[in-house]
Model the fold of this input.
Amino acid sequence: MEAFREEMRRDDKVFHICGNLGPLAALVPEFGIERLRASPISEEAYVGAGLGAAGSGFRPIISPGMMTFAFTAMDQIVNQMAKIHYMFGGQAAFPLVFRASTGGGRSAAAQHSQSPHPMFMNLAGLKLVMPSNPYDAKGLMKSAIRDNNPVVFFEDQLLAALPDRCPVPEEEYLVPIGEADVKREGSDVTVVAISKMAPEALKAADELEAEGISLEVVDPRTLVPMDTPAIRRSVRKTGRVVIVDEACITGSAAAEISAQITEDLETFRALKSPPVRVCAPDVPIPYSPVMEQYCLPDKDNVIAGVRKALQ
Amino acid sequence: MTTDSGLLLDMYRKMVTIRTFDARAVEEFHEGNIPGVVHAYIGQEAVAVGVCSALRSTDRIASTHRGHGHNIAKGADINLMMAELFGRANGYCHGKGGSMHIADFSVGMLGANGIVGAGMPIATGAALAAKLEGGDGVAVAFFGDGASNEGAFHGSLNLASIWNLPVIFVCENNRWASSNSAAATLSVEDVSARAAGYNIPGLTVEGTDVLTVYEAAQEAVRQAREGGGPTLLECKTYRWRGHSESRGNPPDPRPVSEIELSQSHDPISVFIDLLMEQGVATREQLQQIDQEVAAAVESAIEFARSSPLPRPEDALTEVFAP
Done:
C-alpha cells in the first residue's frame, strides 16, 4: 500500500485498474476514482485496456485479484502483453504491473489454489516477481512500477494475509528486479525457496539448526530475470541444494533452477549430491485440508528434502 | 458533403495507395519474396480512409490482421511497411513482426494484430489514456464481423460505455469471418444492433462509399471529443481476395457471383465518378495520381529488396525495453 501511495504521488501517470479495489479503496480520498478504477468483471477487456493505456504513456497497475480470474484474459497477457514490445521492433514501451495473487493453503480447491508462475516464465517478454515478505514486496513493487516493461507481480494469497513478519520502513527504498536475496546464511545445504516457501525454509532451518545442520536459504525474489549467479554461488559453497516451489513439479520453476545449477560445469562439479526438488505433485490442488496439506510443500517437506540431499 | 478538394484528393491518393500496395504485396508474396502470410485489404479501402481522414495524427488506432490499409490511411511510411513484409532489418518492426504486426506509434498506429478482436481492448485503453490526459484525443478500434462474436468485443463495448470513453468501434463487416459467412455466424443482421446492449449509439453505413464513411466517422469522432462517449460504427464492405494469401491456394468458400457483384461496386471507381462529377478533378489528374502512387509503391518494393536482412542473432534483442 505504501509502495502504491509513494509511486502515485511521485508519478501522476500511475493508476490502478482492478476487478475489485479491496484495500486500495483507502487511497481513493487522496487520488480519486479516476486513478483507482474499479472495473467490471471483464478481465480480457480491462487487462487489454491497461495495456493500451501503457502504450499511450501511462503506467497502469492492473489487478484481477486472484490470478485464476485472469485466465479469461490470457490472450491479452500471452499474445499481446508479452510480445507487443518485441513484435513491433521495440518502438514503444509498455510499462505496466500485472498484479495477482497465487498459491494454495486455504481449502479453496483447485481453481483458487494455483501456482501458475512457471507458465509465465516460459512466455518470453514478461518480467516475473514473487516476493516472500512485506519488505521485499514494497521495494519490488516500486521497482516494478518504474520498470518500462510489463511486470507480472504474483503475491501469495496467504503471505498477503499474514501479519507483518518483518519491518517495512516508511521511507523510500527500492529492491531491484533480478536480484536474489540470501535470507539466511549457512554451510551444509542451500535451500532455494520461492515466495511462501521461503518462510517454510526458514522454519526448517531453525529446526535443523538444533541438529547441527546449517541451511543457507536463498530467495530468488524474481523469477524473470533469474539471479542465476547468486544461486550458483551458494550451491558451490554448500555442495548440496534443495529447491522448494509450490507449483506442480513437472516444468516447475524448481525444474528450471535445477537445470541452471547443473548445466554450469563449475557448479555441477561442486555438487556432492543431486539437486532435490520439493514441489506439489502433478495434481489440481484438492479441497479437503488433509489432502491439500499432503500436496502443498511445507517445512516438513523441506526437512525431508534436506535429509535426502544429505544422504 | 465536404468540398475541401485537397482532402478529397488526399483520400483518393490513400485509397489508391492501399490498393496498389496490397496488389503488389500479393504478387511479391506469390513470387516468394514475402514470407509468412498476407491478408490483403483490397476492396475495403473506403473504410480505413474514410475513418482515418476524420482523425488527427495524435489520435490512436488499433488494427487487425488485415492491417495494411489502416497503416497507410493513418500515415505510415510504405517503404518501411514493405521492408517489414520482406523481413528486413530496417522494416517497421526490424523484421520481427511482418504483415500482421506492423505498427507506427509516431502516427498513432498501435499495431496490427494477429488475434481476432484483440485490438479492441487495447484501443479502449488508448481512449482511457486520452481521457486521463484531459485533452480531446480519441481512439479507434478496427475489427471485423467475426470479431464481434469475441468476448473482447462485448467487454470492450461495456467498459467504454460505463467509463464514457472517447473510442469509436469500427466494424468492417466484409460478410466473411475467415471462411464462415456472417449470415451463418452472427445473431443479428447488422452488428450495429449490438450497440443497444451497451447503451451506446450504433449505426450501419455503406462501407464502400468513402464519403459516407467519412461523414459518419466525423460525427462519431466529434461526439467522442466532446465527451459524448463511444460509438459502434458498422461499415458494410467486401474483401476482394480470399481470407489470406497462401501458397497452396485453398478454395475460396465464397460464391463467385457474390465476389463479382461486389467487385462491380468498386469503392475506388465509385469515388472517381464522384470526384469528376463534382469537378474536383479530371480523369487525367486522377490518372496522374495513379501513376505517382504506382511509382511510389515500386520504389517501396525496391527499397525493401535492397534493404539488409537482420542478423540472425538480432532475434535476441528488443525483448525488453531499456
User: Anything to note?
Assistant: Chain B touches chain A through 48 residues (CB under 8 Å). Chain B has one domain: 5-309. Residues 5-309 of chain B form a domain with the Rossmann fold fold (CATH 3.40.50.970). Residues 5-30 of chain B form the longest helix (26 residues).
